[in-house]
Write a structure and sequence with these properties.
The protein is an alpha/beta fold. The protein contains 15 helices and 14 strands. It is elongated, with a radius of gyration of 22 Å.
Length: 376
């Protein structure tokens, strides 16, 4: 059986196909856990045309000068038809019309799935009409959390909740390492609780909510270290003023940008990973932190609820609620870290790992293929 993983949007035009594969590892490595049972092909749009076959998986790179969500991709559709896939995985619901168009090029028995990447329902009436029409040609939708599919169901853009499945959009190759050694390498405290923030400094990530909670945490006499890594600085001035006004310079360290690969040692050095996001398509930073055994203290949003198994492997608080976050910080004082780290490791393997993504996709495929057979 053959799986075709299709990306219609172009990205990383500055990278060679070989570099693109490295950059996209988080979204494609799941295939290594399926290649014994399926033939896998990927289509990407980059700066050049090339075909690479590596470790039993085929990657097609197509040169694309612009991204169009209007012009139907006839040539690409013929490529798909020529390869006779049994399962097609299309990325982004906003390309649902392209996915539906494929139905006229492939056998009726082929399964078409769409991976959501955090997209919300469109505002445009015409786009909604288009999505409702195309939905009848789609077999299933992959969301990080079923709750994230609820807005699409409520607006009748997806006909039924039986089409919605929970599968992470990507994972990480970061691994858990010795925590004490990682603390020594990074220079963080060996005696104080260490917290880590990774993300943009914008209103959606809500870093000021985090700082307000930590200010109260310090006021109770608790000592700690919070390290913050970020690659955008929208709220940096407000954060610096808050830290200075509340005498938090010895507790909160603004580290700025760091190379992505270098984050692995910091995830391994930290005790707790902090996030205050108001919305996320999934949460790659949280995924990476959990891969390294850091205990999540994160906002209660659909993707994070799924990723922590509703707080079984972490502490949740209502988004924007610094008081509730403060209570969670107090909870860490008597927390059995070893028990929670075991939970984090368990849930990462069950829900967030590349193997978990592969198993989830395989179960969805088998379900649809059985339905195809039973309908004959």
């Amino acid at each position: 059986m053959k799986i075709f993983d299709v990306s219609y949007h172009g990205s990383h035009y500055d990278l060679s196909p070989e570099e693109y594969l490295i950059k996209s590892e988080s979204n494609i490595r799941y295939a290594s856990y399926l290649k014994n049972n399926y033939s896998l092909l990927f289509i990407f749009h980059t700066s050049s045309n090339k075909k690479i076959k590596e470790k039993g998986i085929t990657y097609f790179f197509r040169k694309k000068k612009w991204n169009s969500k209007v012009l139907l991709p006839l040539k690409l559709s013929w490529i798909v038809r020529k390869n006779c896939p049994d399962i097609i995985l299309v990325h982004s619901i906003f390309y649902i019309h392209f996915a539906a168009f494929l139905r006229f090029f492939i056998p009726d028995k082929a399964v078409i799935l769409i991976q959501n990447h955090g997209e919300l329902p469109p505002v445009s009436y015409l786009k909604k009409v288009l999505i409702r029409y195309c939905d009848k040609y789609i077999d299933g939708y992959l969301f990080t959390s079923k709750q994230m599919g609820r807005p699409w169901l409520n607006q009748k853009l997806i006909a039924t909740d039986t089409k919605i499945f929970e599968v992470m959009e990507g994972s990480t190759s970061f691994v858990k390492k010795d925590r004490i050694n990682s603390k020594e390498i990074t220079g963080v405290s060996l005696t104080k609780p260490v917290f880590l923030w990774v993300g943009r400094l914008d209103s959606n990530k809500d870093p000021l909510c985090v700082l307000k909670a930590f200010k109260r945490f310090k006021d109770t006499g608790k000592d700690f270290e919070l390290y913050m890594f970020y690659h955008t600085i929208e709220l940096l001035n407000e954060i610096e003023v808050f830290i200075s006004d509340n005498d938090l310079q010895k507790n909160i360290f603004l580290k700025g940008y760091i190379n992505h690969d270098a984050l692995e040692k910091w995830y391994n050095a930290t005790d707790y990973y902090i996030s205050a996001s108001h919305k996320e398509g999934s949460g790659y930073a949280l995924c990476e932190a959990m891969a390294c055994g850091a205990i999540p203290i994160v906002s209660k949003i659909p993707s994070f609820e799924y990723m922590t198994k509703n707080g079984y492997a972490g502490l949740l608080y209502e988004k924007g609620n610094s008081d509730m976050l403060f209570e969670n910080l107090l909870t860490t004082i008597g927390l059995d870290q070893k028990e929670y780290q075991n939970r984090v490791n368990q849930i990462f393997q069950e829900r967030l790992s590349f193997e978990a993504i592969a198993k989830g996709l395989d179960s969805i495929i088998q379900k649809h293929l059985e339905e195809r057979i039973s309908c004959k």
